[in-house]
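Chapter summary example.
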Amino acid sequence: MAPTQPSDSRPRRSDSTRAAILEAARERFAADGYERATIRAIAKEAGIDPSMVMRYYGNKEGLFAAASDFDLRLPDVSYIPTTHVGAALTAHFLDRWETDETFAALLRAGATNPAAAERMQTIFREQLGPIAAAVCPDPAQAGTRAALASSQILGMALARYVLCFPPAVVMTREEVIAWLAPTVQRYLTAERP
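The structure predicted for these 193 residues follows.
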């Protein structure tokens, strides 16, 4: 009798190994930053040999790219009144920063590592750029407007979640939105100065 083949619905061992590596990598990059996180520590946390990390991801840079490949899950702005887009995006980013430490790791790494900075640029260009194009008065300015909005969002993230400036940390979610949203709104929807 021939051995039964695993069904397509069961995860393959390599899939679970990759998932364990990515989970461990996200935790290590979030806790240690890009420079201090090591393949050896990530492999230990995943419960595998370091050679397996190299087999699947090639090197630390490849692993970081895979671990930081995520969808911002931005809201569909076609259902949001244009005058509320700044508040909706600010609230959304606060929710994401507070529930996913990968963002803080990416921000830390992006400040010192070109590959991480490039990853951040791609995420914001591909995911925030289309939102800016959808709501700004001149879609040709979408890149500039997305960069300006990002400067506010990432600036607060740096102050609140990475550097932990006490005044930024103790602000309530509502206070952050009240302060930040009007600026994000202006960057995205105001007429060009």
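To summarize the output: Residues 77-189 form one domain.
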